Amino acid sequence: MKVLFAASECVPFIKTGGLADVVGALPPVLKAAGVDVRVILPLYSEIGETYKSQMRHVLEFEIDLGWRKQYCGVKELTYAGVVWYFIDNRYYFDRPYIYGLGGDEYERYGFFCRAALNALPLIGFQPDILHCHDWQSGMIPALLKIQYSHLPFYENMRAMQTIHNLQYQGIFSIRDVQDCLGLGDGLFTADKLEAYGMANYLKAGLVYADEITTVSPSYAEEITTAYYGERLDGLLRARRGQLAGILNGIDIGEYDPANDSMIEKTYTGKDLSGKAACKAALQRELGLMESPDTPVVAMVTRLSGQKGLDLIDHMISRIMEEDLQFVVLGKGDARYTDLFAWAESAYPGRVAARFEMNPSLAHRIYAGADMFLMPSLFEPCGLSQMISLRYGTLPIVRETGGLRDTVLSYNEYTGEGNGFTFFNYNAHDMINTLHRAIEHYKEKPDMWHAMMVRGMEGDYSWNKSAGEYVTLYEKLLAPPASAVAEPKPKRAPAKKSAARTAKPAAKTAKPAAAKAEKTTAAKVDELTVAKEKPKRTRAKKTELKE
Are residues 12 and 156 in the same domain? Predict the structure, then answer.
């Protein structure tokens, strides 16, 4: 089984969000399961020289992109046992940003999608399945079915589209996309590539993919509703039979408190003494008051409304009335950076905010914090809650998407649970749940210790998820059930054509006459049908009157 992942980012090469973690961690696990999986992504200028220096130049060719001819190079790197291909074009990808600033995203990722398809026969890899991730590769299933499937090399390929976040869809002007990809007006209809008067790259993938997946079972259900469906819920309900939710995992090798070189002191569930040292070191590093008994509540997140920061904005003063310290790491909207910058100045020694992407500091926060706050408005899967559990930092989350699938609220009667949850997107529900967690932290240390150990012992690896993907791949490659039944309806027309078997002889002698005869016969048949139809209608009406 051969599978090609197509994505716009991937660790350790380039990362802006959780998509990169998934694309970087899943292929090696699939490879270990016996799948010949490879990955293709753009060669951004921001990819580190450490990796660029190891790449091998494979080939170069030109791509027709509308009226343009664009250079395309392909470089190759083997890393973690997997082959990674990089699409090279300096005009599109040699920029000081990854997404969103140039106004030509439709062209950049339209180029990437066409380059990925055109490169395959040249690099000598013929995948059975093209596994496309998010809108940046959403045009690959569409182009495959519309422009490539008639070619022998591509005719048996299947496509899978994975939604990592339905909010980001790649919405552009229809004329721009037509100019770039050479797609006719007939394709930009409500049942194909058009959505609300615009071209939609993610919708293209959802319409033309043979199978659709998303990153948690709960999110797969949520996006078929109007509230979470981002105006594509109707399409997703129509394709519910091809929609599956597979929970993401994390790289348990990278996030392992027993062997993490980035934290102050390693620790395990059997010996948690190292976590106290990590907490003290984190308080010193961030300028917080060193207090082993004060709970540290942390967030490592993109600073956006999706992450529930509106609730924190509404209740920041109330939150700080609790006996806690608050740590935030992330980049994003100015509104929220202003909020946390103000909080840091208003509560010195109790709030620390760092507005950067700093993986090393993130590890130290996961290890040194006591609680991890995720009050998300929606969360397709979420990796941070699983990472925090892995480090014995108990999550406080809103029950949505993957958070609902991974965090079980503590039950005081049975002792079950690995965190604290609330259901409604409500600031008071959030603060009440936070207050409850702090009370248990201070008053029930044995219970808290047991929950920490339970969280650290959970299985957050990719093994189970990879098995589910392999099952879906096998389903895609299995011959359709209808293929067995196809010959049956073909036998019936054979009897009909028996009456015409005498005509080929005449056709050989007088082709023009035979053609005219056939045309005349067809016209007679059409006239007969046209006459018979109204008669049957009139007969029915007469019967009703009688």
Answer: yes
The pLDDT of residue 446 is above 70: yes
Does residue 161 lie within any of the structural domains? yes
Which pLDDT band holds residue 485 (cuts at 50, 70, 90)?
low
Which CATH number characterizes residue 289's domain?
A: 3.40.50.2000
Assess if residue 502 is contained within a domain: no
Q: Do 283 and 264 form a contact (C-beta atoms < 8 A)?
A: no
5: nearest Cα among 213, 171, 168: 213
Strand bridging mode 158-163 / 211-214: parallel
The CA-based dihedral angle spanning residues 518, 524, 526, 531, taken in that order and rounded to the nearest 10 degrees: -170
Q: What is the pLDDT of residues 354-408, one digit of tens each?
A: 999 899 999 999 999 999 999 999 999 999 999 999 999 999 999 999 999 999 9
Q: Are residues 445 and 334 in the same domain?
A: yes
Q: Which residue is associated with the tokens 């380039």?
A: 14
| Number of folded domains that form the chain | 2
CA–CA separation, 275 and 141 (whole Å): 47
Q: Do residues 199 and 138 touch, judged by C-beta distance below 8 A?
A: no
| Residue pair 317/345 in contact by the 8 Å Cβ criterion | no
Question: Among 406, 427, 460, which residue terminates a domain?
Answer: 460
Question: 305 and 280, same structural domain?
Answer: yes
C-beta of residue 369 within 8 angstroms of C-beta of residue 282: yes
CB half-sphere exposure, 125, CA atoms < 13 A: 25
Nearest alpha carbon to residue 267 among 413, 85, 453, 509: 453
